[in-house]
Write a structure and sequence with these properties.
- Belongs to the lycopene cyclase family.
- GO terms for molecular function: lycopene beta cyclase activity; oxidoreductase activity, acting on paired donors, with incorporation or reduction of molecular oxygen.
- Keywords: Isomerase.
- InterPro entries: CrtY (IPR008461), FAD/NAD-bd_sf (IPR036188), Lycopene_cyclase_b/e (IPR010108).
- By secondary structure, this protein is of the alpha+beta class.
- It has three domains: 188 residues, FAD/NAD(P)-binding domain; 97 residues, Alpha-Beta Plaits (2-Layer Sandwich); 74 residues, no CATH class.
- The protein is 33% helix and 28% strand.
- It contains twelve helices and 16 strands.
- Strand 1, helix 1 and strand 2 form a beta-alpha-beta unit.
- The chain is globular and about 65 Å long.
- The chain starts with a strand and ends in an 11-residue tail after the last helix.
- The site of flavin-adenine dinucleotide has 33 residues, from helix 1, strand 3 and strand 16.
C-alpha cells in the first residue's frame, strides 16, 4: 500500500520548502517527509539577500523570516562600504515551527532514517519498506567525486554582549581579521541590541574544522571590538561546498530518485548557499501537472543542468580565488569585487550576472599574479564537465 504520493527523504531546507510549496499548490497531494532526527531543519541560520528572490518568492518565505534588515555592510583593510540591499534571516527553530504547523503530523515522520532509496520506495534503517508514487532525495550534501570543490567553513556563536554591540546592520564580510591559509572574514548578524551572531568564516582548501582555533578567533574579534561576552546563547557550524569544476548532471543520473538541495548540487557555486535554489526547485516542481517519477526526474535534472551551465563563470572565479596567488592575499580579490557597483554585486549573489557584469569583474589588473589568475580562469573549463570521465 502506498504511504504517500510523494516521499521526501530528509527534512531539511530543500525538503521543507518543497513540502510547503506543494501544500499551497496541490493541497490534495499526500507528501510525507522522512527525517532521521527529531526536528526539521537541524540547527542553522539561513540568510538571503532580497534580490536573490522574486517578490512572490519572498512572500512565500515571509512567515519564516525572523529578521529583515534594509542595509548590509562589508569591511576590508582598504574599504568600508554600506549597501542599501536588504538581507533576511530564517532561524531553523522558526522553520520547524512554521512547517510542523502547516503540514501537520501525518506529513512528517521524525526519527525515520532512510537506508535505501528507489524510484517509488524507500527502506528505513529498521527495515520498514515504504511505497510511494515517487521519491525525492533531499538528504543534504555528500562528498562526490563528480565535483571538484573547496570549502567555506565556519563556526558561528550567537552571543549576548554586555551593554550592546552597537551594530546597526549585518556585516556580510569583515575581512580585517588575520588572514591565514585562505580568505578569512567575520560575518555578523545583529538580532537585537545585545544579541549578535558572530561567524568566523574561511574559504579554505581543507574541510576540517578547527573548533578551538575558531573559538579563539571569535574571542579575539570580540575583544578587538571591545565587546564583553555575557553569554553564548547558541552555536552553529558548517562546511559548505565551493564548486571549482565538475558535472553533477552526470552524477544525478546515477541515482534512483531525483535529488534536490545540496544532495543535487543546487547551490551558489561561490557562497555554497542553497536557499534561493531550494525555492526555485520548489516552484518548478509545484508547477508540474503530474508528480510521476519520470516527470520529476526530467524537470529536476533539466533545471540542475541549466543552472550548472549558467554558473560556469562563478566556477572560473572560484578557481581564481583558490588557485591563484598566496592564500593570505585572497582577500584582495573580494575587496576589489566590493568596489564594483551595487547592482552588479546584487546580481552576483543572485547568480544572474549579465555579460557586461562578467567583463567588469574581469577587467583591470587582477589582485593576484596575472599569469596564475589566467591559468586558473582558463585552465580547467574543459575539465568542468569531465571530472567523472
Ligand atoms: C550552519 C549553516 C548555516 C548555513 N547558512 C546558510 C545561509 O545563510 N543561507 C543559505 O542559503 N545557505 C546556508 N547554508 C548552506 C545550505 O543552504 C544549508 O546547508 C541547507 O540546509 C542545505 O539544505 P538541504 O535541504 O540540501 O540539506 P539540509 O538542510 O542539511 O537537510 C538534509 C536533511 O536530511 C536529513 N537526513 C540526512 N540523511 C538522512 C537519511 N538517511 N534519512 C532521513 N533523513 C536524512 C538531515 O538530518 C537533514 O535534516 C548553511 C549551512 C550550514 C551548515
Amino acid at each position: 500500500m502506498k504511504t504517500a504520493d510523494l516521499l521526501l527523504v530528509g527534512g531539511g531546507l530543500a525538503s521543507g520548502l518543497l513540502a510547503l510549496r506543494l501544500k499551497e499548490a496541490k493541497p490534495a497531494l499526500k507528501v510525507v517527509i522522512l527525517e532521521k532526527d527529531a526536528r526539521l531543519g537541524g540547527n542553522h541560520t539561513w540568510s538571503f539577500h532580497d534580490n536573490d528572490l522574486s517578490g512572490e518568492q519572498r512572500k512565500f518565505l515571509h512567515p519564516m523570516v525572523a529578521h529583515h534588515w534594509p542595509h548590509q555592510s562589508v569591511r576590508f583593510p582598504g574599504l568600508e562600504r554600506t549597501l542599501s540591499a536588504g538581507y533576511n534571516s530564517i532561524p531553523s527553530g522558526r522553520f520547524h515551527d512554521v512547517l510542523t504547523k502547516a503540514l501537520g503530523e501525518d506529513q512528517i515522520r521524525f526519527n525515520a532514517p532512510v537506508r535505501e532509496i528507489a524510484a517509488t520506495s524507500v527502506r528505513l534503517d529498521d527495515g520498514t519498506e515504504l511505497e510511494a508514487g515517487a521519491v525525492v532525495d533531499a538528504s543534504g550534501f555528500k562528498p562526490d567525486p563528480a565535483l571538484r570543490i573547496r570549502f567555506q567553513s565556519f563556526l558561528g556563536l550567537e552571543l549576548r554582549i554586555a551593554g550592546g554591540h552597537g551594530l546597526a546592520m549585518p556585516v556580510i564580510m569583515d575581512a580585517t581579521t588575520p588572514q591565514d591559509s585562505g580568505y578569512r572574514f567575520t560575518y555578523l548578524l545583529p538580532f537585537s541590541a545585545d544579541a549578535v551572531l558572530v561567524e568566523d568564516t574561511g574559504y579554505l582548501d581543507d574541510a576540517a574544522l578547527d573548533i578551538a582555533g575558531l573559538e579563539r578567533r571569535i574571542a579575539d574579534y570580540c575583544s578587538g571590538r571591545n565587546w564583553t561576552v555575557q553569554e553564548v546563547v547558541r552555536r552553529e557550524q558548517g562546511v559548505l561546498p565551493i564548486a571549482l569544476a565538475g558535472d553533477p548532471a552526470h552524477r544525478n543520473r546515477q541515482h534512483a530518485a531525483p535529488q534536490i538541495g545540496l544532495a543535487g548540487a543546487f547551490f551558489h557555486p561561490t557562497t555554497g548557499y542553497s536557499l534561493p535554489d531550494a525555492v526555485r526547485v520548489a516552484d518548478v516542481v509545484a508547477a508540474l501537472d503530474q508528480l510521476t517519477p519520470d516527470a520529476l526526474r526530467q524537470r529536476i535534472d533539466t533545471l540542475s543542468a541549466a543552472l550548472w551551465r549558467d554558473r560556469r563563470f562563478f566556477r572560473a572565479l572560484n578557481r581564481m580565488l583558490f588557485l591563484a596567488g598566496r592564500p593570505e592575499d585572497r582577500w584582495r580579490v573580494m575587496q576589489r569585487f566590493y568596489r564594483l557597483p551595487q547592482p552588479l554585486i546584487e546580481r552576483f549573489y543572485a547568480g544572474s550576472l549579465t555579460p557586461l557584469d562578467k567583463l567588469r569583474i574581469l577587467s583591470g589588473k587582477p589582485p593576484v599574479p596575472v599569469g596564475e589568475a589566467l591559468r586558473a580562469l582558463i585552465q580547467t573549463p574543459a575539465e568542468d564537465t569531465r571530472i567523472h570521465a
